[in-house]
Amino acid sequence: MLVKVYGSAVFGVEATTITVEVHMDKGIGYHLVGLPDNAIKESCYRIAAALKNNGLNFPGKKITINMAPADLRKEGSAYDLTLAMGILVASDQLKAPEIERYIIMGELSLDGSLQPIRGALPIAIKAKEEGYKGFFLPIQNAKEAAIVTGLEIYGVEKLQDVIHFFNGKGTLEPTIIDTRAEFYKNLDFPEFDFSDVRGQESIKRCMEIAAAGGHNIILIGPPGAGKTMLAKRVPSILPPMTLREALETTKIHSVAGKLKEVGLMNQRPFRSPHHTISNVALVGGGSYPQPGEISMAHNGVLFLDELPEFKRDVLEVMRQPLEDREVTISRAKFTVTYPSSFMLVASMNPSPSGFFNDPAMPNTSSPHEMQRYLSKISGPLLDRIDIHIEVTPVPFEKLADDQKAESSAEIRKRVTAAREIQSIRFEAIENVYYNAQMSSKLIREFCVLDEESKELLRTAMDRLNLSARAYDRILKVARTIADLEGVPHVISQHIAEAIQYRSLDREGWLSLRF
């Protein structure tokens, strides 16, 4: 007897439906074909024990199972439930004429209970696109998959729940969530708030500009100046995620297996990897590529604390994703692309001792040590960071001041208003949503300068020896400053402020870096 059941494989952030064909014949043997990995090959032991512990039999016949398409590599233990249901139907232990209308996925424990799987959301999206009626999966992943409307999502705890459903004996009901209600819940309650930060008004202004235009920013200052504290509060002033952004972000975290009984993500991600991170962990990869930190930070913030402490080759692999806002990982037989549109916030000490340019503290680092320290960050990488700003320690008077600082909610209103201006501006342009994403062509179109602004920028280019990319960055930041002020055109004062935010291009820093 031949039976077909359906599962799904996830490559990148997209799913591909897998047809599991189970053929039962005379004889004895278990043959699993279709490029399964070791975890799938071992499934027969888990399935046999689970069936036995639930009063069922693993048939003593010749069982041939094909996982089609046969030239596509399948991996992981999530096919246990798919294979078990196929074996039960093919051996006549279960009558399920409608089983071909469902996607079935789940890892079996030896007692028949189910363990969570990865990629439930992209699998559910694909199942709906291909017209399947429902999706059986572990109950831990049910809320995540239930984001997809128009598909019956059944969260199950054990093998018997699925068997009873097809026998018509169970009480299994589909999981239903209100996607919009789930999305707007806790949307405006960030964990950290700018009202906790004393002083640093100029830095807050930089953060506001960076958030309004989606610009990358680096903070340079001595230990204890508040760099990390400021960086952790950036997500609190970013505009609330749109439903499109929330779905994109949830999809990536689903593929990585980072969603734990959570439906739709409604807070922008904040990722802060340690400086010992590897290339693969940062940008993604492996034998079977998984998303890295830059993709996990998609639509949110990637914070790299103590930037020069990261290995240089690790930082250099970010150059292309920072420019293209996606990362493509190629292997011999396939290529996957992960989105990586994140806001980079980096921090660093100005010297190994941390106190260069601080008049109150002695500089104990030699010029050679400082040059070696700063040279870990390449010029091309710095060119891709729009805003460089020096952070100075907060004086006692500011720290002891009881006056409440401006809250994140107030800053967020101005940032959101600026983003709305940008969304209208780029409404007809595909894949461009805010100023930092503008191409050179768009910069020429939306950052038209008068003669005074041109002369100011020409002088800055000559004196600071700026690259063409730095020129574009200044114009993008100036455009964002104009948007925050509600001004339709970029004028000289916007250019002047944007130039101030290129600290590492100044003569003193350049002489130390190179």
Protein described:
With 514 residues, this protein is an alpha/beta fold. It is built from 23 helices and 18 strands. The strands form six sheets. A five-stranded parallel beta sheet has the order 11-14-17-10-18. Helix 2 (43-52) crosses helix 3 and helix 8 packs across helix 21 (468-484). The longest helix has 18 residues, at 408-425. The termini are far apart. Mean pLDDT is 88; it is low at 507-514.
Silhouette: elongated
Rounded mean pLDDT is 88
How much helix, percentage-wise, in residues?
Answer: 25-40%
Q: What structural class do helix, strand and pairing data support?
A: alpha/beta
Number of helices: 23
Q: Quick one: biggest sheet?
A: 5 strands, parallel
> If strands are numbered along the chain, what order do they take across the biggest sheet?
11-14-17-10-18
* Low-confidence runs of at least 5 consecutive residues: 507-514
Radius of gyration: 28 Å
Number of distinct beta strands? 18
Question: What's the N-to-C terminus distance?
Answer: 73 Å
**Percent range for β-strand residues:** 15-25%
